[in-house]
Amino acid sequence: MVKLPVVSGRDVVRALEKIGYVLDRQRGSHIVMRHSDPPFRRVTIPDHKEVAKGTLRAILRQTGLSSENLADLSW
After folding, report:
1. Going by C-beta distance under 8 Å and a sequence separation of 6 or more, which residues neighbour residue 33?
2. pLDDT tens per residue across span 21-57
3. What's this model's pTM, rounded to 2 decimal places?
4. How far is the CA of 52 from the CAs of 6, 15, 37, 41, 49, in angstroms?
5. What are the extents of the domains in the chain?
6. Is-contact 64 70, C-beta < 8 A?
7. CA-atom Rg of the chain in angstroms
8. Which pLDDT belongs to residue 32?
9. Using N-to-C axis directions, what is the helix angle for 67-74 and 9-18, rounded to 10°?
10. What's the DSSP call for residue 39?
11. Phi, psi for residue 11 in degrees, rounded to 5
12. CATH fold for domain 9-74
């Protein structure tokens, strides 16, 4: 398993957009994205300069991505 990268909330949003997630809504610093194809899975991303490791792990688990996939999609 690859070490989790240090990424911002905007980096996570850009990576999720590449795999079919779209912006659903935003309130304050919480960005809610949903998958464009059924089932419409939703995930909340904090719009912070650095996403905490535990939060990033939860986002990856909810979206079905691995840390390797995230690293490939982020850059």
Report:
1. 13, 16, 17, 21, 22, 23, 24, 42, 43, 44, 45
2. 999 999 999 999 999 888 889 999 999 999 999 999 9
3. 0.88
4. 8, 17, 28, 22, 10
5. 9-74
6. no
7. 11
8. 97
9. 90
10. S
11. -65, -40
12. Metal Transport, Frataxin; Chain A (3.30.920)
